[in-house]
Amino acid sequence: MIEVKNLPKERAMLIALDTKEFSKEIVEEHIDELEELADTAGAETVFKIIQSKRGIDPAFYIGKGKAEELVQLIELNEINIVIFDDDLSPVQVRNLEKLFNRKVLDRSGLILDIFASRAKTKEAKTQVELAQLQYMLPRLTRAWTHLSKQYGGIGTKGPGETQIETDRRLIRTRISVLKDKLEKIEAHRQTQSSGRKNFVKIAIAGYTNAGKSTLFNLLTQANVFAEDKLFATLDSTTRTLEIDETQKILISDTVGFIRKLPAHLVASFKSTLNEVREADIILHVIDLSHPYYEDHIKVVDETLKEFGSAEKRVIKVFNKVDLIKDKSLIDYVKNVYHDSVLISASRGINISSLRGMIKKILDENIIEEKIELPINASKKASQIHNFADVLKTNYDEDKIQITYRTSKQNAEKIKKIISL
After folding, report:
1. Topology of domain 10-118, per CATH?
2. Residues linked to residue 286 through DSSP beta bridges, in sequence order
3. Residue 164 in contact with residue 141, Cβ under 8 Å?
4. What stretches of 311-376 show up as alpha helix (H) in DSSP?
5. Which parts of the chain have pLDDT scores under 70?
6. What is the distance between the alpha carbons of residues 240 and 243, in angstroms, rounded to a whole number?
C-alpha cells in the first residue's frame, strides 16, 4: 500500500468542468467539497477553477487551450499539484502532467490518498491497497515515462513496454492475492456475525462528515474516532445498544458515502459495507446545516439502493439541528420527511426521541408467545433459546411451557423447529 508521510502542505489548484448538466450552484458545491477533500489530504487550495465547456475534452479534459492558459498561473504561484473533480483517463493524465510539469490527480485518486492515510486495521489496509492497485493498473503508462526520458530515441520502446507489462502482471498477481485475503476476512466476519444472527442489527449510514461517529459514541459510550473532516471513520465498529431493560441490539458505525464514489472503491469495501446490507434498521444521518443536505440525501439513498438496502426500514436522522437559525427549515423537514427525527449528536439534543423511534420499530417487529412442548422435547426447548429471549419456563409432569420474546422472523424459525 502507498504510505502517506507527513510532508509540508502542497499548494493545490482545483479544476472542475461545468457542462451545464448541473446548475452553477451545484458545480460550485462540488468543487467546494473537493477543497474539503484536498484539505483532509493535507493540501492547501490556492486556486479553484471552473471551466465552462459543452463536453469533456478526451485529450486534456478542459481543452488544450484552457490547459495552456493555466501553465503560467501554475508556475507563478508555485502550484505543486493539480486536482480535477472528475475521474481522468490515463491519456488525459499523461497529457496534463506533461503540459503542467506537475502532479495531476483526480477525485478518485484523492479519495484513495485519504483512505490510505486513515486505514488503521488490517482489513481496511487490505481494502485500500486493493482499490489503489485497481486504480493504478490502467494508469501505468505514466508511471514509466522516465524510461524514454532517461534513454531517449530509438531502442527504448521495447524495454519500456516490457517493463510496463511486467509491472502489470505483478499488480494483477497482487490484486488476486488481496482478493483472496479479503474473502478470508469476509468469511471470518460472517462467522463472527453468525453468533449475532438473533440480535436485531442497526447500521448508521450517511454522507461523510454528517456526524455518524459522534452519534455512535453518544448512543453506545464508545470511543470511536470522530473529527470534523471527510472520512474520519474508515473501519466499521459494532457495539451493543441497550434500548430498555429487556431489549439489547447491535449497532454499527460505517464508512461515509460521497458523490462520485468510485465503483472499484465500493467493491473493495464490500465486507465493511456488509454491515449496511445485514442491518434490520438503518439510521441515515444527515447534516441539516449543510446547504445541499437534500443532494446528500439523494446520494446516500442511491448508494443504499445499489447495496440492495432500499427496502430496509430507514430512520432519517437530521443532525446538527443546534446550528440551524432558520426555524422554517425545521418545519419543512418535519412536514416532508416522515419517519425522521431532528437531533444534535454533539450536544445530545432530542436523543430520547431517536431512542423512542427505534423502540417503536422494535416493538412492531417483536412478539411475545407462549408454547407447550412434550417433556421429552428438551432439545427443541434448548433450540428456542438460540432464537429468542426466554422469559419463563415451567415444567409439568408431561410438558414444558415456554414464554419467549423474539422477532417475527425468528418466531417463524421457532415454529419450524416445533413442527419437525
Report:
1. Rossmann fold (3.40.50)
2. 318
3. yes
4. 327-336, 351-365
5. 1-7, 140-163, 189-198, 223-235, 245-246, 262-272
6. 10
